[in-house]
Amino acid sequence: MPQTRLDKFISERGEFTRSRIKELASKGHIRVNNIIVKKADTKIDPERDTVEVLGNIIKPDRFKYLLLNKPDGYVCSTDEHDGPTVMELIPPEWRTKNLFPAGRLDKDSLGALLITDDGELAHRMLSPKKHIPKIYIVKLANPFQSKYIDLFANGITLLDGYQCLPAKVCNVESSEKLAFIEINEGKYHQVKRMFAAAGNHVEVLMRVSVGGVVLPEKLAIGQCMELLHKDVENLFVPHDFNAFCSEFSGVFSAILINI
Length: 259
Description:
Order of helices and strands: EHHEEEEEEEEHEHEEHEEEHH
Shape: elongated
Distance between the termini: 49 Å
Radius of gyration: 22 Å
CATH architecture of the largest domain: 2-Layer Sandwich
Number of helices: 7
Number of strands: 15
Number of domains: 2
Mean pLDDT: 90
C-alpha cells in the first residue's frame, strides 16, 4: 500500500480533526511503531506501521462495521435533534466522523442494525436490486393464523393499497403469538402494516438477521460489536428461511417472551 500522511490516516479512522491531531502530535501523544512522532504530516505505511493515539492503537481498516442490538426508544439518525439516537450507544473508541445507520428500525423496534462509515456498502445493501432479506421475530396481539403464510407469500396488500413483495412467515411452536417473518424491502412500518392488513397487531418487533448476519445471542440489547470483513460479506449470503427458523426459534423466542 502506498504511504499516506499520518494526520490523514488518523482522521479517516476516528473523530479527531486534522488540527487536533497536529496538537496531539506536538505534545507527544502520537506514536508510530512505539516511537513518538511530533509531526502530523509524517508519511506512514498503513499496512506495516502501528499507530497509537493517546495509547490506543488505530486499526488500519479504512472502514468500520458495527452491529448494534438496538433498544426501544432510539431513532436511527445521526441528528441529535431527532431525539436519542442510536449513535449515542456507540463506544467512543469506535466512533468516526462519518458513521451512520445503514438502514432503519422504528423507534420502538429492537434488534440488528448495521452502523458503518462505508457509503458504498450501504448503497449495495439498500439498493432495490439487491433485495437483501431481513428476518424479524414479532410478538402478536392475537394468535398466529396459518392463512398468513399464503397471504404474505402472494404479496399482501396493505390498508393504503400498497402491494408488498412476496414475503415468508412462520409461527414459533413454543408460543402461539410469536412468529418469524422475512421481507425483501423496507417500507415505513412495513412489518406492522402487513400484520395489520392481515387483521392482527404487532406488539413487539425485533430484527434478528440482516442478509446472512445473525444477531448474536450474547449481544445484549443496547450493546454493539465490531464486525470482521468476512462477516460483512455474509450480508449478501442470505439464510434459508425455514432452516433459520428451526435453528434460532428457541433462542429468539426466549428473548421476546421476556421483553
